[in-house]
Predict the 3D structure of the following.
Amino acid sequence: MLHSIEVANNIGLGTGENKDTVILKGINDDEILDFARKTITDGWNVRFIGHMPFAGAKKQDNDLVSSQEIMDVIPQAIWNLISTSPYR
């Protein structure tokens, strides 16, 4: 997902500064740190949202990564970047 956003930005289809994402186990949970880094280094406003229900949705709540799980993944190294970010 992150790669697709970067490609869109690079070819002028800018998706704006706000990025909403639902983190799903086994799908994009490996991108949590990358999204956190983009928030700090590139000024993105990433919002990890818990659920986006829609008709025909096949995903179950147990596929979602909770807010607490997301916070547990982001290590101190990411928080240390905040002090040097031009976007803080």
In short: The first helix runs from residue 2 to 10. The mean pLDDT is 77.
